[in-house]
Write a structure and sequence with these properties.
409 residues, alpha/beta, Arc Repressor Mutant, subunit A, Nucleotidyltransferase, domain 5, 3 domains, five-stranded mixed sheet, 13 helices, 40% helix, 19% strand
């Protein structure tokens, strides 16, 4: 748990992180345990970290000394306790390193730089031109250069450390299937955009499903902080889901886990994909808008505030289908929480989320409540890009079995 400056630190502490390992060959894992513990729990003393992670105090001291030399943690003023020497709390140095995130779809590129806390320090949105991603690569690289340059103003050292680039894009299925763009062909194998970004920047680049990136953002800075198992339902132009199981993203065999929008639901005597009834694609079309217009969210929010009939019609149709999806996820996966978020104006999400909860309350009335109500997540425009940027940070610092087994040197 987080400690306030000036508190006595004599009581036992339980870290919200994976436990360390007091065995040979586990130094990288233990380093990651300490970093994640500080990120999730906030400022803590060496003794608190040792008790919470079950690492021996000398191991914790060695790790903290190493991280402080690298500029990744910072010390606060010592806290005077009841007995002994004052204890020094340590916390993540937010500007000790950075990562770049990029969300791509057929209409926009959203680019961010985030610090070690996952906080967006700068973001930019680029409207893509016709001609596909290859044609738009110069625009994307310019946006990346601009956000990377902004980190120099905040970095602890003259040369900011950029850990890597995370890219999020939709899978080429459902509403995103007819793109006919060779650079948006899928999330597996050789990906031209990833190869181009690696070649042009010299940084490691990872590729992610956009709904999974949204789930990462919720776990780092949103409604799912500290949760090990949850599902994020992501409602935007399409519908997807990011799935966390035992603290790890579940990508699926073909990296297509979470294609919730393709699940069939009944409508007018037929079975149709969920995203045909509950995604923004239908609402945008009904309002006579186009998905790449710069003021799309402004127009959607205006429709909410003026009580346009298309809004009420869409919400009343989408909410029962999404409430059914929540029930299905809870019954199949038994997660700690189902988070509902996406990319849309805040007032529109408020209407949709309230309608989903009312559908669940009505369906479950008089029934023993086993599963919790859904949790409202983010609709921030840069949340997916921020989630993608969190991946290079997680690869560098979060505990995992692969990191523990990685040979040193």
């Amino acid at each position: 748990m987080t400690r306030r400056t000036g508190q006595d630190t004599s009581e036992p502490t339980r870290l919200r992180t994976k436990g360390g390992a007091n065995i040979g060959g586990a130094s990288e894992h233990n380093r990651r345990v300490v970093m994640q513990g500080l990120r999730v729990n906030g400022a803590m003393t060496r003794a608190q970290i040792a008790r919470g992670s079950r690492l021996v105090p000398q191991t914790v001291s060695n790790i903290i000394d190493e991280l402080e030399r690298e500029g990744l943690v910072i010390a606060a003023e010592p806290i005077k306790g009841g007995r002994g020497q004052p204890a020094t709390p340590y916390s993540i140095a937010p500007n000790g390193a950075f990562a770049v995130g990029l969300q791509i779809d057929q209409h926009h590129a959203r680019t961010v730089a985030v610090n070690l806390r996952g906080e967006v320090i700068v973001g930019t949105e680029t409207v893509l031109l016709p001609g596909g991603l290859e044609h738009n690569l110069p625009l994307i690289l310019t946006a990346m250069h601009d956000v990377s340059a902004a980190t120099a103003l905040l970095a602890a050292s003259p040369s900011p450390k950029i850990l890597g680039i995370g890219v999020a894009m939709p899978a080429p299925t459902g509403v995103h299937a007819p793109l006919q763009d060779a650079w948006m062909v899928g999330l597996t194998g050789a990906q031209p955009l990833v190869e181009a970004l690696q070649r042009e920047t010299g940084l490691a680049v990872s590729l992610h499903h956009d709904a999974s990136a949204a789930a990462v953002a919720e776990r780092v800075t949103g409604a799912a902080i500290g949760l090990e198992s949850f599902v994020m339902i992501f409602v935007s132009y399409g519908i997807g889901a990011g799935i966390y199981v035992s603290g790890e993203l579940a990508p699926g065999h073909h990296r297509l886990a979470g294609e919730l929008g393709l699940v069939l639901v009944p409508h007018d005597g037929h079975m149709v994909p969920l995203e045909e009834r509950a995604s923004l694609k239908r609402l945008v079309a009904n309002l006579g808008l186009v998905p790449n217009q710069p003021d799309l969210f402004v127009q959607l929010e205006l429709a909410v505030r003026t009580a346009a009939p298309e809004i009420e019609e869409w919400v009343s149709d989408a909410a029962p289908h999404l409430a059914w999806a929540v029930d299905m996820i809870q019954c199949l996966l038994d997660p700690q929480a189902v988070v509902i978020g996406g990319q849309m104006p805040e007032p529109l999400m408020a209407l949709l989320f309230d309608a989903i909860c009312k559908c669940q309350d009505h369906a479950h009335s008089g029934r023993d409540e086993t599963y919790p109500r859904p949790v409202r997540g983010s609709v921030a425009p840069f949340s997916v890009a921020a989630g993608a940027a969190a991946d290079p940070i997680a690869r560098a610092f979060d505990p995992s079995l692969s990191a523990m087994l990685k040979p040193s040197g």
